[in-house]
């Protein structure tokens, strides 16, 4: 019995597969701790092929951070589709908060975002990370209509939740700790003010 013929992936499909493997690897071991050999192994290609697709590990890491930020913006824009000119700011921010909760559940993504922040000392990484963070902030302002102080508080709460997600004290598999629940309860009460 012969095997069915394998369908060859397009370069775009292969690139997406390598990028997905990179997101997983960078989430686990960060920028410094991840080797392109590991990414190649996970995606079933050679290490030189990874470099041919993305240039350097640094460029691949930046591409991974861009993919994560693209996902945040995608989720915010999907939530923003439910925001009309009649939607008040509180409701608009609640919709965006729900979208960010969906992002946090995709556990690898917040970890790559955190690693991106940690690698900002490298200008080739820091400049695009800062740019994308600014774009996310402006997307929040644009979609919600929130004034800067409200948008800043929204971003600050989101970053706190990102850190807590990385520590595994929020989310579907959260390790229960009293202080984390206090923070979540306070955020929920503050949202009602």
Automatic annotation (TrEMBL):
UniProt KW DNA-binding keyword: yes
HTH tetR-type domain: residues covered: 12-72
Record keyword DNA-binding present: yes
Protein name: TetR/AcrR family transcriptional regulator
Entry's Gene Ontology molecular function annotations: DNA-binding transcription factor activity; transcription cis-regulatory region binding
The entry's DNA-binding region: 35-54
Pfam family, one: TetR_N
Lineage start: Bacteria, Bacillati, Actinomycetota, Actinomycetes, Mycobacteriales
InterPro entries: Homeodomain-like_sf, HTH-type_TetR-like_transc_reg, HTH_TetR
Keywords noted in UniProt: DNA-binding, Transcription, Transcription regulation
């Amino acid at each position: 019995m012969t095997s069915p013929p394998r369908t060859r992936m397009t370069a775009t499909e292969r690139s997406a597969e390598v990028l997905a493997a990179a997101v997983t690897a960078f989430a686990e071991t960060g920028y410094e701790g991840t080797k392109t050999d590991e990414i190649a192994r996970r995606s079933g290609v050679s290490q030189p092929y990874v470099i041919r697709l993305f240039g350097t590990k640094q460029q691949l890491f930046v591409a991974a951070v861009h993919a994560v930020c693209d996902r945040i913006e995608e989720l915010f824009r999907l939530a923003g589709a439910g925001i009309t000119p009649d939607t008040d700011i509180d409701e608009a921010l609640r919709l965006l908060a729900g979208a960010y909760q969906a992002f946090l559940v995709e556990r690898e993504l917040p970890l790559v975002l955190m690693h991106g922040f940690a690698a900002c000392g490298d200008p080739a990484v820091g400049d695009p990370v800062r740019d994308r963070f600014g774009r996310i902030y402006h997307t929040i302002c644009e979609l919600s209509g929130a004034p800067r102080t409200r948008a800043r508080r929204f971003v600050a709460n989101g970053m706190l939740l990102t850190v807590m997600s990385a520590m595994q004290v929020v989310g579907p598999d959260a390790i229960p700790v009293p202080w984390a629940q206090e923070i979540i309860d306070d955020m929920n009460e503050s949202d009602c003010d």
